[in-house]
Amino acid sequence: MVSSLTVELLSIHWQPAQAAFVALLNALAEVADPVYIVGGVVRDLLLQRADKLNDLDVVISRDANVAARRAADRLGWAYYPLDADRDVARLVFTAGPTPLVCDVAGMRGGDLETDLQARDFTVNAMALRWRRNCATELIDPVGGRSDLEARVLRRVTPWSLAEDPVRLLRGVRLAIQLGFAIEEATLVQMLRLSDALRLVSAERVRDELWKMLALSEPDKALEMLREFRFLHTVLPEVAQMEDVAQSAPHDADVYHHTLRAVRYAAALHGWIVGERGIDHTPAGAELAAALTPYLGRLRQVLLEIVAAERRLVDWLVWFALWHDAGKPATRSIEQAPDGSPRYRFLGHEEVGARLARQRMEALKFSRHEVALLQAVTRMHMRPHHLHTAFRNGSLSRRACYRFFRDASQSVYGNAAHAEVGIATVLLALADYQAIFAESPPPEWSAYVRHAAELIQFGLGPGGLECVRKPLVDGRLLMHYFKLEPGRQVGELLEQLREAQAAGEITTPEEGLALAAELLAGSR
Asked: What is the helix, strand, coil percentage profile of the chain, to 5?
C-alpha cells in the first residue's frame, strides 16, 4: 500500500533499455500487481547513471517466489529460490549478449513504506511503481531524492546500520562510488559500530569488498576502510602493512606503496575493459603505446570468467593489493655503509602467497581463484629480476618460457599457460610504477619493453604456443630409447620443451638427437 506516501510523477516515462526486463516486469505485474522497482537502480536513474543496467531489485506485496516462478516459466528465465524464509527469488536471463538478473522479494512488513524504512541509506530507499511498459511514479518516504541532490549519504533510521553491519562496508563503497559525503550522525555511528563487522558472514564481506575494489578508485576505498578502522577486521594483513618502512628506491611504507600499486592496477583494468585510458602521464602514454598491439589478445585472455562472474581482469587490483602482504612478517634490518638502516624482505613472495591463500579461503573464494592469487603473488618479483638480468638487451626465449612455465605450474601443473604469466606481468608494471614517486620512473622505457616482450611471447605467434604441440612426445621417447614410464621421461620431456621454446630444436629428429645427448650425459 502507498496511500500514506507521497507519490511523485516522473517527468519521463522510464523503462529499462533491455526488452527482456520490460517483458519480465510486465509479466510480474500481471500476476502480482503492484510491482515496485527499488534500490540502486532508482538512485542511479535519478543520477542519470542507469545506462548499463543489468540487474534489478523488485518488491511485490507477497508470494514473491510464486510470482517469480510463474513469470520465469512464461518467459524462459532461470528461477532460483534465494531465501524461502524471507520470500526472495532470483531470476536470470542468459539469452542476450549480457546476463540479466532480477531479484524479486516480498515486502518486508507487508507494505511498501515499512519495506523502504528497513533499508540502509535514504538514497537506496526509493521505489518506482511499474505500470505496463514503463514506470511513471516515484515513492520517496525518507527524503532520498533531496539527499541525492545534496550529495549526502544518510542512514534511513538510527538502527539501520546496527541491524545489518555489512551496511558499514556498503556505506564506504557508496561514498566512494557516488562521491558523496557521509552525514555526521551516520558517520559517527559507522565508527562506533566497527567491531560489529566481525558478525557479518564471510560471503557477504567478500561480496562487498569485491564491489568496492571494482570501483575506478579502489585505493580511496581502501584508505577509507583504514580511516574507519574497518581494515583491521576485514583485511588485517593489509592493515599490518602500515608503517612498515622500506629502503630506497622505495619512498613510501609498504601500505602506501600498495595503495599506489592498486591505483595503477585499476588504471590498467580500466584500459583493458575499454572504460578509460591508462592515465595521462608520459609513463601511461608509453605503456599504452607498447601494449596496444596486444590489446585484442589481452582482452581474450583477461575477460574470461574465473568464477561466479568474476573475470581475470577484475583480479588485477586484488593482485596489487596482496603482492607485498608478506613484507611485514619478513622484514629484517641491516646497517648500510653510511650507517643508515637497510630493510630486507627475503622470502616475502612465499609468505605473501600463504597469507593470501588463508584470507581468500576465509572469504570463501573458489579454489581456482585462490590458486591464481597465490601464483601471481609468488611470481610478482620475477619480471623485476628478468629486467635486471637483461637490462641492456632483449629477454631470451628460454627465460620467457621458464617464466610462463613457473607462473602457471602451481595452477595448471606442467603445462605452460599464458594467463597467470600475463597477469603477473601487468601486476609487475603497476608495482614498478608504484615504487617511485616520479613519472616516468627510472628505466621505464626498458622495463616496458621487457614487459612487452613477455606479453609477445605469451600471446603472440611463435612464442608459448610453439610448445603446445611438442616435437617429441612421451610415447616416442619411450619407444625410441626403450624407456619405462616414470620421472626420467617427464624430466626429459620438459628439457625438450624448453629447448623447443628457445628455438634450439625445430624438428622431431633434432629433438631425438638432443634427447640422446641428455640421456648420455645422465649416465
From this structure: 55, 15, 30
Distance CA 221, CA 175 (A): 9
Q: Which residue has the higher pLDDT, 456 or 277?
A: 456
Residue 9 CA to residue 53 CA, distance in Å, equals: 22
Report the C-alpha gap between 200 and 415 in whole angstroms.
40
Q: How many whole angstroms separate alpha carbon 190 and alpha carbon 154?
A: 11
pLDDT tens per residue across span 35-65: 999 999 999 999 988 667 889 999 999 899 9
At 449, list the grid cell. Answer: 619493453
Torsion of CA 109, 114, 116, 121, to 10 degrees: -110
| Contacts for 338 with CB less than 8 Å, ≥ 6 apart | none
Coil, strand or helix: which one is 395?
coil
Cα(296)–Cα(82) distance, rounded to whole angstroms? 37
pLDDT in tens, 81-124: 988 788 999 999 988 888 899 999 999 988 999 999 999 999 99
CA distance 368 to 312: 11
CB of 456 closer than 8 Å to CB of 463: yes
pLDDT tens digits along 243-298: 999 999 999 999 999 999 999 999 999 999 998 888 778 899 999 999 999 999 99
Which cell numbers in the block locate residue 11?
Answer: 517527468
Looking at the DSSP bridge assignments, the partners of residue 255 are: none
Q: Tell which phi-psi region holds residue 166, choosing left (phi > 0), alpha (psi between -120 and 50) or beta.
A: alpha
Burial 7-26 (b: 16+ CB within 10 A, else e): eeeeeeebbbebebbbbbbb
| Per-residue pLDDT at 166 | 97
Q: Which three cell numbers stand for residue 52?
A: 548499463
How many residues in the chain?
A: 523
Backbone angles phi, psi at 353, to 5 degrees: -60, -40
CB distance 470 to 482 below 8 Å: no
Region of 3 please: left (phi>0), alpha (psi -120 to 50) or beta.
Answer: alpha
CA 236 to chain centroid: 19
* Residue among 422, 400, 429 nearest 286 (CA): 429
- 460 secondary structure, DSSP code: S
Determine the residue type at 423. A
- Copy the grid coordinates of residue 514: 638432443
Q: Indicate the residue type of 420.
A: V
Closest by CA to 426, choosing from 297, 264, 205, 239, is: 264
Nearest-angstrom CA–CA distance, 380 and 432: 10
pTM for the model: 0.91
CA distances, 487 to each of 79, 477, 492, 494, 513 (Å): 50, 13, 9, 11, 20
Rounded CA separation 162/196 (Å) = 8
pLDDT at 9: 62
Query: What 3-state class would DSSP assign to 71?
Result: helix
